[in-house]
Amino acid sequence: GAVVSQHPSRVICKSGTSVKIECRSLDFQATTMFWYRQFPKQSLMLMATSNEGSKATYEQGVEKDKFLINHASLTLSTLTVTSAHPEDSSFYICSAVDREAVSNQPQHFGDGTRLSIL
Amino acid sequence: GNSVTQMEGPVTLSEEAFLTINCTYTATGYPSLFWYVQYPGEGLQLLLKATKADDKGSNKGFEATYRKETTSFHLEKGSVQVSDSAVYFCALSDRVTGRRALTFGSGTRLQVQP
Fold first, then answer.
1. pLDDT digit string (tens) for A6-33?
2. Which of B43, B95, B104 is the closest to A104 by Cβ?
3. What share of chain B is helix, strand, coil (3-state, %, to 5)?
């Protein structure tokens, strides 16, 4: 079945560091990918919609200069957390939509990246 | 806007007990409905889905029926196993606007004891 690879799975770094997270669709092309954030014991909150070849669409309250999204190809989207601080520590999950899928087909999720900022 | 409400957990059951996790939704039109499962330290896996009223999604012994009249999509399993311990998320996608992003419920943690 469809597979979405997310890398790295875990990052621990110092405050002020920028961190890049990659989301790849391995056996399908994805014109649209989504980035979610999950706080401990809470649900997933949509951060932004990543569209291949165009600017990402950010949800209200998400700082686009803080969370840079690039979707340069049909199989790769990246999320860069710039100048990360402890409050950015969270579990980040991407998902991808197969460009060939009809509208009611499910998204495919990556395994998530646990980001810990010291 | 769209919203999904799930029963709060954790739900603690003994092995072979019957499971129900309630899920109700608010949405424009007729959304597609999903149940996802998240095992510790992992991402989300699709468990089952339903795309129209009265559809029943099923997988691995889990079932959920799309009830338009009660705007519900309750998850059930007749006999749970320890390996079913995980967090379960109910979600919907908005077919009216074509917005493919999912709206998730808060998640329900299931703990199955041997």
1. 999 999 999 999 999 999 999 899 888 9
2. B95
3. 5, 50, 45
